[in-house]
Amino acid sequence: MRYSEYFLPTTREIPADAELASHIYCLRAGLIRKVASGIYIFLPLGMKVLQKIETIIRQEMNAKGAQEVLMPVLQPKELWEKSGRWTEYGPEMMRLRDRHERDFCLGPTHEELITSTVDAEIFSYKKLPLHLYQIQVKFRDEIRPRFGLLRGREFIMKDGYCFCRNQKELEVIYQQMYEAYARVLERCGLDYAVVEAESGIIGGEVSHEFVVLADAGESELVLCPGCGYASNAELAHFSWTTIPDREDMKEAALVETAGIKTIEALAHYLSVEPKKTIKTMLVQEGKNIFAILIRGDRELSLAKSARHLRRSIGLVEQDTLNAHPEIRMGYVGPFGLNAIPILADLELKESQNMVIGANRDNFHMVNANVGRDFQVDEWGDFTYPVWGDKCSKCANELEFKRGIEVGHIFQLGTKYSKSLGATFIDEDGQSQNFVMGCFGIGVTRLLASIIEQKHDERGIIWPVSVAPFQVIILLLNPTNNRQREAAEHLYEIFQKHGLEVLLDDRDERAGVKFTDAELLGIPFICLIGNKLEREGLVEVKIRESGDSFELPLEGVVFRIQEIMGNQERGIQVDKGDTF
RNA sequence: CGGGAUGUAGCGCAGCUUGGUUAGCGCGCAGCGUUCGGGACGCUGAGGUCGUGGGUUCAAAUCCCACCAUCCCGACCA
């Protein structure tokens, strides 16, 4: 491709809308342009990268026997009413009506459609397992789209659904997908973690998230350097470090703490460490309130709480509190809470002489002790790990990182096949619900994550595997015939060897070309300039390392292929079916 | 949806507090000339419903009201 003819608008200024590197560089390097909040057009360069990523995904999916389909974005209401999700899904689902007043939605996901399709065609266990996937635009009317492609409303997703005879068969496919996902991320050159993502409400499901490590990421991860344990911070297991010294139980007493409603203020006022206090968190499901006691210096994990209670809960709301005059906000404690169940974090089981809310305005209790001064209905694990906490499996100190969730694999079981009545006939002639799995990769999000992890202050640093071009030739003096001819010749050589090459033949100053080449992040930058004129040498710069070397024209392609080959071998790619 | 902020040329911004002639600057864009290995210089030029609607006023980019859009912080997710 000749740069002079290519639709590739780069910008010098940082767009006012963007904050994250991936967002800024997607715009500056001419990959995308915004159409509306969370909605983007992909320009030719962005399109190329997208296709590269999709190809990698296709190869890995096909290699595991998954078959590609394409489903519509527009889906009829009836389908969603069958699964109950037309009402369940909420405002995130974009609904619209056609000229005949029929209701549709823009598909936020495709479980309903795929399940009903398979159900209509597959009747026998002999046809199972079946694994279908698609790479398609999905639409979710996000409450708050942000960070460019990282959280769009319209985004491209690869989603796969497998239909199995039983749990065992599902587990085999699940394992295969685990491997396939890992390979996709490796081939994209990414540093990532796989974390268990247990689902709170519906027990028994197995689920893993694939998270690209990046400081800008929205999910917080806990990693153990010792045993490799990885988890969402909000669900992470850990063992607490501070085992309290044994002390004698002191006499409990009420102290006046007028106007003191936070742990910090309380600890300061009473001159105790925050960890010697207990805070009482209130959560609710519908109108039901639960009190959860945790150590004052800890944070409540709603995810863990939800899992423990097996309910979908949120922090208590003012409306709900109005019906409970016995609750004294700011001084809540496990006293006189009537019918409200009191749960407590296991960490408090051995605690002694704690400060705790008295559930009486302007009073706390000091030297409170479990069992003597207050009772607990249920013990559980309700808090996040913090710096210094140890791995519950191997006792190493846990590490904290942030990441971007790009993939999620799920053992669905019969949730959708049941609600949609999708069945097959098994070996015994009995009707059974399909046992399903679903597997998603956010393709556009993956693109953004790569930039988020692979960039510097000058621009993107594409891994060769997804780079829109492997090589860019900078013709520094387009008016110089010898240099022009050399550049054209080199351009042909690259093409003949199957490399994707961008020839910067624009009538621009050298500085512009250098800056753009680095912004675009093309892995190999070949300079045709004075060096060529004087010594017949091409200067090759490697974008990632900044290293450079000089070679005669004819040798360049082999050297580049050699370097690329070495990188590929590091990943050990065996190509699956391609088409 | 709650909290914060912004909307002026393709992009980045000033002007608004204290209303007053043809609304500015930088980059980019077009033409000509000089330049040409890290975003050159000179000259000429094109480009604006000042987010939209209403109001106040002799007069509104500027003051008031409403709405819309966009971004950032919270609850959701690939």
UniProtKB/TrEMBL annotation:
Alphabetical list of InterPro entries matching this protein: aa-tRNA-synt_IIb (IPR002314), aa-tRNA-synth_II (IPR006195), aa-tRNA-synth_II/BPL/LPL (IPR045864), Anticodon-bd (IPR004154), Anticodon-bd_dom_sf (IPR036621), Pro-tRNA-ligase_IIa (IPR002316), Pro-tRNA-synth_IIa_bac-type (IPR004500), Pro-tRNA-Synthase_IIa_type1 (IPR023717)
Catalytic activity: tRNA(Pro) + L-proline + ATP = L-prolyl-tRNA(Pro) + AMP + diphosphate
Main location: cytoplasm
UniProt key word Ligase: yes
Record-linked PROSITE patterns: AA_TRNA_LIGASE_II (PS50862)
GO process terms (BP): prolyl-tRNA aminoacylation
UniProt subcellular location: Cytoplasm
Source organism, top-level taxon: Bacteria
GO molecular-function terms, A-Z: aminoacyl-tRNA deacylase activity; ATP binding; proline-tRNA ligase activity
HAMAP family xref list: Pro_tRNA_synth_type1 (MF_01569)
Family, per entry: Belongs to the class-II aminoacyl-tRNA synthetase family. ProS type 1 subfamily.
Domain notes from UniProt: Consists of three domains: the N-terminal catalytic domain, the editing domain and the C-terminal anticodon-binding domain.
Function description: Catalyzes the attachment of proline to tRNA(Pro) in a two-step reaction: proline is first activated by ATP to form Pro-AMP and then transferred to the acceptor end of tRNA(Pro). As ProRS can inadvertently accommodate and process non-cognate amino acids such as alanine and cysteine, to avoid such errors it has two additional distinct editing activities against alanine. One activity is designated as 'pretransfer' editing and involves the tRNA(Pro)-independent hydrolysis of activated Ala-AMP.
Subunit-level organization: Homodimer.
Name of the protein: Proline--tRNA ligase
Biological source species: Candidatus Hakubella thermalkaliphila
UniProt gene name: proS
